[in-house]
Write a structure and sequence with these properties.
alpha/beta, TIM Barrel, Rossmann fold, eight-stranded parallel β-barrel, globular, Glyco_hydro_3_C_sf
Length: about 675
Amino acid sequence: MTASTPIQPTLGTRTGRLITQDGLQFRDLNGDGELNPYEDWRRSPEERAVDLVRRMTPEEKAGLMIIGSHHPGYSSFLPHAEEGQLLNPQDVWRDANPITSQPYPEPVLVTSSTDNAIHLRHQRFLICRDNLEPKDLATWTNAVQELAENSRLGIPAVFASNPRNHVALVAQFGVNESAGVFSEWPNELGLAALEDPGLMETFGEEIAKEWRAGGLHKLYGYMADVASEPRWSRFNGTFGEDVKLVTSYIGNLVRGMQGEELSESSVACTIKHFPGGGVRLDGHDPHFEWGQTNEYPTEGALERYHLPPFQAACVSGASSIMPYYAKPVNTSAAQLDEQFWQGPTTQFAEVAFAYNEVFLEELLRRRLGHRGYVNSDSGVIDAMVWGVESLTKPERFAAAVKAGTDVFSDMADPAELIRAIEQGLLSDADLNQACIRLLSEIFALGLFENPYVDPEAAETVIGGGEVAALGEKAQRQSVTLLRSSELLPLKLAREVKVYPFVTGRTLIGDVQAKLEESITRVWSGAHIVGTPEEADIALVWARPEIALFEDDREGVPLSVDPRADGVDVDRVRAIEQTVPTLLVVNFTNPWLLGEIEPDAAAVVGSFEIHPDHLIRSLAGEDGGPAGRLPMSLPASVEAIENSPRDVPGKYCGEDYPYRDRDGNVYAQGHGLRF
């Protein structure tokens, strides 16, 4: 075989329609018996996409440009779920946004029946939110692909998901709804605590194998937002405050998950939330009207702190970028080159980033060099419509498409996009560029050759031994020793009476039970007692939380005080004053530790971890805690209030970080060793 001889890919088909030409085989996707350019895997993804777009109707193009949640027929997400029913048989309409609970002016289709999604609405991008076992996931995605193969043009489906590879002792819809099936790693802050960009490429490579084994092709992540407001509820989805570290992590993750270029083994990344979601007013999120603005009080902050990770994503070839809901406002200090200003005294068009042509076309595509597509965040047409409230839905679609948005998230109904064409707001040709970008990804992922996966192999690969062991080791090493004592490292075989106490916000009783089970399983010398007075040592796990859809309310201030975020501070202090206490603080945000740190014997940071691995780390397994704070813990409420929301705490000066009772400075990068 010569170097130029095409290598026959493996073809997967349920229709059995194949074409043989030049001694090679191709799938006959439209069943016409001829080898059309888009069916010819020897051609480039873009060539094939251009040919396929020419064959598509306006309705098929519109369907391609939406991506919505989809479920198997037995899913608990469906009101009509039926055990044993593989494909969803009914459309689901709702009166309120399923994520924010915001009422809709009129009912909205939130998920289609599978047949309607594929054949009636021509949808091909689907979001998987169910926490399915590996074989079930593969069986379901295969069934949807078979339906797609039997459509007019045979366009396969792309399954997207939020991250699935992080420990979630408590799973939450829209954040980490899937847990305990795929390999489990610490949360993003925990990965940042490892300060290991090379590991991020390995992480991406390994979890991509799990995703593709189950029929998942596209990741909604990771977040390239540099966290610059400590009270932001989504701080925990970031890689922290260090711009250089976040930048290297994002670039390496994209390379790990996608490879040097997209292929049949890649998972396409959707890096978010452009141009940086950390710039929050008092921490409030733009899911809500009262948090809708990105205001930059510091001249040049956008360029200095927030754009570099997105530049890295573009350099690494990120398949898509997601703009945030927020809109820039003209009370900001200067951020853009004057050539991009709206006028002599007006810097920004005050519309959400999905509608903002300067940010999407000039900044993202031309300056940063993004070559893929733009994927809106959920609900930009019917819920979070900041700056375009006066437009009709067809007008919003037209404005976003013309600004550079290619696909619209958490939408199951393209009807209003079709109306934009019918009303003359968009032409059929206006959809072509978006569809070429979207189809190019599907071709590059190899789905037009073989969209099917092996359910038996999925059981072996997903959560398999090697990748699971890597994740567990990362959990142990992410633990961060903030202040040590003679209690550490734990001597697991030594007889000791232990009082475990978990305090925080969400299902704390469940976490308490898991901690006690782990102590019994892992700590052989421990005897659990019911009061601090009986104990030789207390293990307190403080788990404060700022819950996006519970705490972020109009007129209600957000706080990083553990007392305000579910921790029984008085009880923690009483325990610490009764018995030598190992205080473990779970970090999703930079908490104020002034009340609960001084009386503890030792202080440790965790970043979502299974308690088995917490105990093993504290006993010195794999060398013990190796993490370093991925953010600076503020010294006080005043330190936060006096810092600008667009500058991360790491860069806010030496008076910003907290100093503990022994003089340790809890700045970004702090972490001790045994």
